[in-house]
Amino acid sequence: MACRMPRRIGEVLARLLGRIAGRLDSDRRRMVERHVRRTVDPDLAGRALRRSVDTVFASYAEYWYRSFRLPEMTPAAIEAGFTHEGYERIVAARRTGVGPIMAMPHLGSWEWAAFWLARVEHVPVSAVVEALDPPELLAWFRSLRTSVDIDVITLGSTAGAEVIRAVRQNRAVCLPCDRHVGGVGVEVEFFGETTLLPAGPATVALRTGAALLPIAIYDHADGCHGVVRPAIPTERLGRLRDDVARVTQLLADEIEGLIRRSPKQWHLLQPNWPSDLLPRPVAGSAD
């Protein structure tokens, strides 16, 4: 159905359904409200807060709509809808023979960029994904990505070894890094509060010499725009544990800056900081 209707109509409908879903899911809405206050304005309230939260849910629904359309899009259509800055950093990283770690937040239609790399630039791509419920959804995402030769690495006990193998094969690895979902975490300051972020990106970069590139994808009406930031310094300065902590904090700072460029496109609907698990006064709610 997503591929049959005109794209503009589909996107409008997806955003409308996203807003409706956001109004019906009160628990996630309250969580998004917290994140919007953290990333946009701590004093946001009333109508302005409601509109901002609605925009997050609309953006998330549009992400899904675009994901459903991607397998049917031609390479020419994917290229026509994608602009970028800093792509030369990915090219330079691959010239070393070790593929880059493309550390990304859950922001915008990041899979569009992965498809662009694989289908337009013919760069071998691996993507690390969370295990999803129901399992059929994970299977669909896996088939979506493998259909264009994107290798899928599911988070789990073997993911680290698979990522190391991928970069040593000079594959570009998409690695979401804006929230901790299991495994080893590192304490960082992120949007003004201490929380855990995954240790994987820094650990792999330090062990393999892979370039650690902070990257974000921003949606717009005609497609999306990719931003590739300079590589995080990953020279060994001491114990591996200390280096991982230092590099992860540098990465957190970069990811925060990328999110702040368009915080309402950040698809974070889950708790991400210790204070997210504490009750919040109802006054000023976006419900």
What does this 3D model show about the protein?
Helix content is about 45%, strand content about 15%. With about 290 residues, the chain is an alpha/beta fold. It has two domains: about 5-65, no CATH class; about 75-265. Helix 1 packs across helix 3 (about 45-70) and helix 2 (about 25-40) crosses helix 3 (about 45-70).
What's the quick description here?
The protein is an alpha/beta fold and 287 residues long. 47% of the residues lie in helices and 17% in strands. It has helices at residues 7-24, 26-39, 46-69, 75-80, 87-95, 110-120, 135-146, 159-168, 200-208, 240-261; strands spanning 82-85, 101-104, 125-129, 150-154, 172-176, 185-190, 193-198, 212-220, 223-228.
What is the overall silhouette?
A: globular
- Tell me what portion of residues adopts beta-strand conformation: 15-25%
Radius of gyration: 19 Å
The count of helical stretches stands at: 10
**Secondary structure category:** alpha/beta
Could you describe the largest sheet, including whether it forms a barrel? 7 strands, mixed
Mean model confidence by pLDDT: 92
Largest sheet, spatial ordering of strands: 1-9-8-2-5-3-4
Q: Strand tally, please?
A: 9
Tell me the span between the first and last alpha carbons: 31 Å
Helix content: 40-55%
| Number of domain units | 2
